[in-house]
């Protein structure tokens, strides 16, 4: 386990799996089942035909062939969804559609292609044998069979299975709410006119998008100047969420105050020197079950940190069993190259330096 | 090009790219830009410091070293977002933070680590040279530079870039509305009690989930019995959407009426024998710009058909340039194995048979 993995493991140790809530079947898509789903009835729940054709007693068809067809009297119809009341006797047949209930008395279904439909009668040229072309009750599933397990991620196939099991609503793990705060006197937001020395709080939006991509709920607290009291007010608001992320205010400049504010608010700092080029440090802490991440203001650094540290925690909260796959598959997308030297407080190319440097150490 | 690819190409030929609409920056996530995004201002918009330190005239620092530090008078501060009004003269310095505006007169920034801050004065031990540790105006981007191209898919990084460009709203391609209809007398929905011979219209929900996964908008028209008039009423409703999908009513059984209904409604049938095991055929048509897909009632067959035929069309509608990658990457997930013999009107294992069989041909 390298240092980066050690930090990730430490964060996951502090991360709870959130409780469950009831979601409408289509809102469960992409979420994690919080209960097993078992079959509430046999599937199919009665014997049904697997083909379009004629339900018969196959004993009547002994020796049936093209040269020697057996003619049966058609006594009724059994389309899917409209059961036929008649009982099939020897010498009789019921016209049946795919999915139609096999009527009483019948033990076999002759395919349409093996039968010449003459209206009142049918000439059968083949004997499918007992059970031929019939899907018997419980063939696919027996009542009580496990269909989906708690912990499975719901995709379109799972939605189809849930619907088959008549589950319009299902228990899934809750989505974490992630409060995001950008700090710095230099920041401005969309509602403010641009002015020299001010930069857009772009990583507020970039990280909100990452939260959405992960399947969690962003809570945009907005931006706060380098003022401890204002920071405390907004952070207190954020601590009602499951996760709080701050960006900016994490380096050693005179006006970088977030770390001190977190300390003053009794946030237990569990890790405070996750070194990030260009020499800014990230912080991880927790208070009353809320995880707190403090990242540099540099958008590359904060977004890479999100992928590495926040995303696995969010996935665990949402009940995902494997958090490492998702982490790795996304990491390549959020790289220094793509973010390059874009806007704002993004001062230079960011990269993760997974080591614990003393805080007073100089950056390269 | 095999037969399957030929059918896909035929569908895409009939598929329009939808127009554009304005989306809030976070709602643009996963969607396709419908316009180029250019820089509205230089980035950075003024010369700013890349480090915490002291803004100076570097001419004053000739020969500065640890043995021979040059002492300058500190005349002000320039934290990020709070420009310093002072002009730096030779022999003077302004304390500056990362992102702070480089004050008039200064042409270089001495890093904090190369300076001993004594309050009123600072002792500098290094000469960074002209432009040292300064990010000059327009260094990252010049006003008018292309930042994002029309056709790019918006991810978290693109959201961050859009925010940097102060784009709270952005033009993206519209999401197609996909009306879904399940047909068959045998179907029941969540609001009905289970009864023998009735099965849940599970692929209504399965395909709605596929629509959501693709990023489009499902419109659940519900289920309709095997009655041409009722089918016409709901299909007419569906034709107000961008795409209509029906399931069921596509085989050769007496009660399979959808194809005839579509013909009676003047839907131009462009392809009507996309053969699907177990012997049911799919239909593709169009009317007044709305695409119409008719799939078998078997959930495996309809969901596989969706992945192969509908999904690429939806991606094209939403402005995606490459529709084949997404198609291939998802196909393995929706396979017969996972859907297996689940519930309802799923009668046997489905697979695509990419060939044109005459309609009267028998199924294997």
Largest sheet of chain A: 7 strands, mixed
| First-residue to last-residue Cα separation of chain A | 25 Å
General shape of chain A: rod-shaped
Radius of gyration of chain A: 32 Å
From the helix content, strand content and strand pairing of chain A, which structural class follows? alpha/beta
The pair of chains with the biggest contact is: A-B, 90 and 92 residues
Query: In DSSP terms, counting alpha (H) and pi (I) runs of 4 or more, how many helices of chain A?
Result: 8
Enumerate the spans of chain A where pLDDT stays under 50 for 5 or more consecutive residues: 325-364
Mean pLDDT across every amino acid position of chain A: 83
Oligomeric category: homodimer
Tell me the series of helices and strands of chain A, N- to C-terminal. HEEEEEEEEEEEHEEEEHEHEHEEEHHHE
Strand arrangement within the widest β-sheet of chain A reads 16-13-17-20-19-18-21
Percentage beta strand of chain A:
25-35%
Instruction: Estimate the helix proportion of chain A, in percent.
Output: 10-25%
Count of beta strands of chain A: 21
């Amino acid at each position: 386990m390298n240092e980066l993995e050690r930090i990730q493991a430490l964060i996951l140790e502090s991360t709870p799996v959130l409780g469950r809530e009831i979601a409408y079947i289509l809102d469960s898509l992409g979420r994690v089942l919080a209960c097993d789903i078992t079959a509430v009835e046999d599937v199919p729940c009665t014997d049904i035909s697997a083909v379009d054709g004629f339900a018969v007693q196959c004993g009547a068809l002994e020796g049936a062939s093209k040269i020697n067809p057996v003619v049966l009297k058609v006594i009724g119809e059994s389309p899917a969804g409209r059961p036929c009341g008649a009982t099939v006797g020897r010498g009789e047949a019921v016209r049946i559609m795919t999915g139609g209930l096999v009527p009483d008395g019948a033990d076999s279904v002759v395919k349409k292609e093996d039968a010449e439909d003459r209206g009142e009668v049918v000439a059968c040229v083949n004997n499918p044998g007992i059970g031929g072309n019939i899907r018997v009750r419980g063939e696919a599933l027996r009542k009580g069979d496990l269909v989906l397990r708690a912990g499975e991620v719901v995709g379109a196939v799972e939605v189809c299975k849930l619907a088959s099991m008549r589950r319009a609503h299902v228990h899934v793990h809750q989505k974490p709410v992630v409060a995001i705060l950008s700090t710095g006197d230099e920041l401005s937001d969309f509602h403010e006119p641009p002015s020299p020395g001010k930069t857009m709080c772009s990583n507020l939006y970039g990280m909100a998008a990452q939260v959405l991509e992960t399947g969690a709920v962003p809570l945009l607290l907005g931006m706060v100047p380098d003022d401890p009291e204002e920071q405390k007010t907004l952070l207190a608001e954020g601590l009602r969420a499951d996760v709080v992320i701050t960006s900016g205010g994490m380096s050693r400049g005179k006006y970088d105050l977030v770390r001190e504010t977190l300390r003053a608010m009794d946030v237990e700092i569990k890790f405070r020197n996750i070194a990030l080029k260009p020499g800014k440090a990230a912080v991880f802490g927790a208070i009353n079950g809320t995880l707190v991440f403090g990242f540099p203001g540099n958008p590359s650094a904060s977004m890479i940190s999100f992928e590495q540290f926040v995303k696995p925690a969010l996935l665990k909260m949402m009940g995902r069993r494997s958090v490492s796959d998702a982490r790795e598959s996304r990491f390549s997308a959020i790289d220094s190259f793509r973010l390059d030297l874009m806007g704002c407080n993004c001062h230079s190319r960011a990269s993760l330096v997974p080591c614990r440097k003393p805080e007073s150490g100089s950056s390269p």
